[in-house]
Design goal:
The chain has 3 helices and 5 strands. The protein is globular, with a radius of gyration of 13 Å.
Length: 94
Amino acid sequence: MNETTIDRNAIPEVAPTFRFQWEEAQDCYVILYPEGMVKLSNSAGEIMKRIDGQTSINTLISNLQETFPETSVEGDVLDFMEVAYGNGWIRNKS
């Protein structure tokens, strides 16, 4: 999956085998799964916080752009979505 194949109108949700949460001991957001944990960067955490099963990717990009007007976020969001879909952390809400 790449930027050209990501449906920006899709509504992503965290896949049922994964859990997204703040991990105090790691001082960062993480994705937990039965085999372990993935520590997320600050920007990845900001993106994942907005994946709620109700918000489209386009809206998510707009919300992040409003929160961080000093930088262009679209490319970073689409790159992260490619990784998140590829790893199965998120899926499109059915």
